[in-house]
Amino acid sequence: MNRLWIMAALPPLVWGSTYLVTTEWLPPDRPLTAAVLRILPVGLVMVLLTRYVPARRDWLRLLVVSALCMSLLHWPLFVSAYRLPGGLAALLICTQPLLVVGFGWLLFRQRTALQTLSGVVLGLVGVALVLVSPSRLVWDGIGVLAATVAALSMALGTLLVKRWQMPIPLLAFTGWQLLLGGLLLFPLMLWYEGLPPPLSSSELGGYLYLAVLGTALPYLLWFRALRGLDPVFISILLLLSPVSALALGYWFLGQSLTGWQWLGAGCVFAGIVLSQWRFRAR
Questions:
Q1: What span, in angstroms and rounded, lies between the C-alpha atoms of 259 and 112?
Q2: In angstroms, rounded to a whole number, what is the distance separating the alpha carbons of residues 13 and 90?
Q3: Does the pLDDT value for residue 281 go beyond 50?
Q4: Which one-letter DSSP state was computed for residue 216?
Q5: For residues 246 and 130, what is the distance between their CA atoms, to the nearest angstrom?
Q6: Residue 256 — φ and ψ, nearest 5°?
Q7: N or C: at which end does the chain have fewer Cβ atoms within 10 angstroms?
Q8: Which residues contact 140 (CB under 8 A, 6 or more apart)?
Q9: For all residues of the chain together, what is the average pLDDT?
Q10: Distance separating alpha carbons of residues 60 and 63, to the nearest angstrom
Q11: Which residue stretches of 16-85 are H helix?
């Protein structure tokens, strides 16, 4: 269980860097390009390496989870990253644990223990304290809507991946999701943004970082952990993402931490531990 816990905790810590990389290294105002270049090439490489073709009965479900976990996650995510402060975008997206609880009850009448819900709420309060500085909370309507869509999509996709348990090897399962998700977005990218412009070395490095270190490796760990952990619990670990974004802002952008923000970070970890005790006991 400890090994799976670490596998599930590492991806949110890495994903917290998405907002810094987007604003500092990528070309401005190209969310579809960022989403496609992040997921499609690395997905194609994974599929070619595995040479695994899913069974006919799995294609529809695979397409649904690819659209939810990749297409409808990454496009809105980059929209929010371009239009909102990184911490605020991460805060809205990491409301996913509550959404997983809600979808689980609405669709499958799945109940969640009070201790787990308490951990979720405590973690969200901690994230709110981390982002308490009014000068950074710049509310952009489109950005807020995009972050909400990303959270809804990933929450439903995570629940369905766990519920369906498709018998596909991990590397192939991850690769096909990335590839199909990128292919769904590729025509939209050509229509709205066109082909990517010539890239500078820093922009190319940003896309490579997001594709390899920010996508391929974290998603392999994430889906491996999801096969052995409860989807509500694994979603709670997404609360680490805004804390990671704030820490990177502190180190690279000189953004100072207040006492309230330190208290909020403590609440985040306390909420994760409170939720994790129940699953460890089980």
A1: 33
A2: 11
A3: no
A4: I
A5: 8
A6: -80, 155
A7: C
A8: 83, 84
A9: 82
A10: 5
A11: 18-25, 31-50, 59-66, 72-83
If you compute the radius of gyration of the chain from its CA atoms, what whole number of angstroms results?
A: 18
Render pLDDT for 113-141 as a digit per residue (tens, 0 to 9): 676 667 777 777 776 776 665 444 556 77
| Selection from 179, 210, 239 nearest residue 8 by Cα | 239
Lookup: tokens for 54: 């899913």
Tokens of 129: 């304290």
Q: Which helix (H) or strand (E) holds 151?
A: helix 141-164
Question: Which positions ≥6 away from 114 have C-beta within 8 Å?
Answer: none
- Structural domain spans, the chain: 2-281
At residue 134, the pLDDT reads: 47
Round to whole Å and give the CA distance between 174 and 170: 6
pTM for this model (two decimals)? 0.83
Rounded to an integer, what distance in angstroms lies between the CA atom of residue 16 and that of residue 248?
Answer: 8
What Å distances lie between residue 206 and 38, 181, 202, CA to CA? 10, 20, 6
Per the listing, tokens 């070309």 go with: 27
CA 61 – CA 47 distance, rounded (Å): 17
Write phi, then psi, for 147 (nearest 5 degrees): -65, -35
